[in-house]
Amino acid sequence: MSLIEKAQKLISEKINALSLLDTGWQNRAYDFFLIFGQNDESESPWIKSSWYENFEPYFDRLIKQTDSLKETGIRVIKYKPEKRIAKKDNKEFIYHSEVKSGRLKWDIKSHEKWTVVNSADYYFLNLELWTPIWTVCEKRDSPPDIFITISNERDFENKREIQFGYLIVVAVAKNLKTDSKPVLRELSEKINAKATILKTRKWGKPETVGNWAFVNGIQDTFSGGIYNGQSLHSLDFSKLEFEPVWEIIYQEK
To answer: How many domains is the chain built from?
Structure first.
């Protein structure tokens, strides 16, 4: 298991600990999008310039279609590489220490805090966005109106081969009747996503359809094991079968 897969497992365990599994949470239906990003890390969503130019405007349009813009909450996991000396053999090694970003909202101040100028200075792992924030969802006893995660598919030291540089999960509750598909199609065209696909899913319901399997709910979606039980990075991305399970919103040109 790679370092990133171990980190994703840790995120999964944290998410599961916070998940509410009663029927109300399980059954809310969503438009469930997966966006597979290009490999150029300088164009990744956690890079400050790319975030503001290529991603934030589209997510902002999406979130503003709800009544919960001011109640949006963000959690980010990122690490800062530090040079340390091993006590055992006195050799230098790189240690990745987690950067505590504190409570983040959907505003410029928070965007400035979690995005990075250069990936060499930080290792971004994951962003998770809830609209409204998870504490409000708990009070309402209902999952979020909009849920977004952004996952870096590179390992800490870039040792594994990757088919796509990042995975974005977007879930928009169907009863909101928001116009999410055109917004995410425009985003996908802007970034020339490798693929953007859509299907209907329920928040807390595991499912297996065709070659695709999701053993947990929407809030616990990562690239590992979701296609024939394999990591998508171990497969030829161009040969993945999306239809008829998924509607293809966009494919790279």
So the answer is: 1
- Which helix (H) or strand (E) covers residue 62, if one does? helix 56-63
The answer, as to whether pTM is greater than 0.85, is yes
How far is the C-alpha of 6 from the C-alpha of 50, rounded, in Å? 27
Is 205 domain-assigned?
yes
Task: Extract the runs of DSSP E, i.e. beta strands, from 86-204.
Answer: 92-99, 104-105, 123-131, 146-152, 166-173, 195-202
Q: Could you tell me if residue 85 is inside a domain? A: no
DSSP helix/strand/coil, 172: strand
Domain residues for 46? 28-67+128-251
Do 193 and 252 touch, CB atoms closer than 8 A? yes
Residues 130-188 pLDDT 10s: 999 999 999 999 999 999 999 999 987 667 789 999 999 999 999 998 889 999 999 99
Distance of alpha carbon 196 from alpha carbon 178, whole angstroms:
18
